[in-house]
């Protein structure tokens, strides 16, 4: 077993996650933004846009699920060994309320970081006029693997 290594400092961790986030074509397409980054925790923000809605004008569950998957994945990546990354294996998401507001915020939090699998919980909130309403809850499993060369 490989001995644990020192965690990167906050600035290095932020730079690593930002680099990977910036390479995500879907996050660019959705106009999502990376928020807070800390070991085991990542926030992703999604501003409202009419191209992100379903037929009633709420954020589409696909957009909600996409930023939840990203927040969870990047949270898991903050706990990955140097030279490793993560890949989603499965997730389950519950929509708790209609996702309506000025933006969404997905907060990914590592529950358990293992050698092979990492388990993450993601809370998604709708932000509107200073109010923060829970709209989705996700549990996600990710596999740890070496970063491609």
UniProtKB/TrEMBL annotation:
Domain Thioesterase: 57-127
Enzyme class: hydrolase
Transmembrane annotation, as ranges: none
Keywords for this protein: Hydrolase
GO molecular function: fatty acyl-CoA hydrolase activity
Name assigned to this protein: PaaI family thioesterase
Alphabetical list of SUPFAM superfamilies matching this protein: Thioesterase/thiol ester dehydrase-isomerase
Similarity remark: Belongs to the thioesterase PaaI family.
Matches recorded under InterPro entries: ACOT13, HotDog_dom_sf, PAAI_dom, Thioestr_dom
Record-listed E.C. numbers: 3.1.2.-
Superkingdom of this protein's organism: Bacteria
């Amino acid at each position: 077993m490989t001995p644990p290594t020192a965690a990167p400092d906050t600035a290095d961790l932020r730079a690593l996650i930002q680099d990977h986030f910036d390479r995500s074509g879907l996050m660019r397409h959705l106009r999502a933004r990376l928020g807070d980054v800390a070991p085991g925790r990542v926030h992703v923000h999604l501003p409202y846009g009419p191209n992100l809605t379903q037929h009633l004008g709420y954020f589409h569950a696909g957009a909600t699920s996409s930023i939840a998957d990203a927040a969870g994945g990047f949270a898991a990546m903050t706990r990955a060994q140097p030279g490793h990354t993560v890949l989603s294996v499965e997730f389950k998401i519950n929509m708790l309320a209609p996702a309506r507001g000025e933006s969404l915020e997905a907060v990914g939090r590592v529950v358990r970081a293992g050698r092979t699998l990492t388990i993450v919980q993601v809370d998604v909130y709708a932000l509107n006029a200073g109010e923060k309403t829970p709209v989705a809850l996700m549990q996600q499993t990710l596999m740890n693997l070496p970063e491609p060369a």
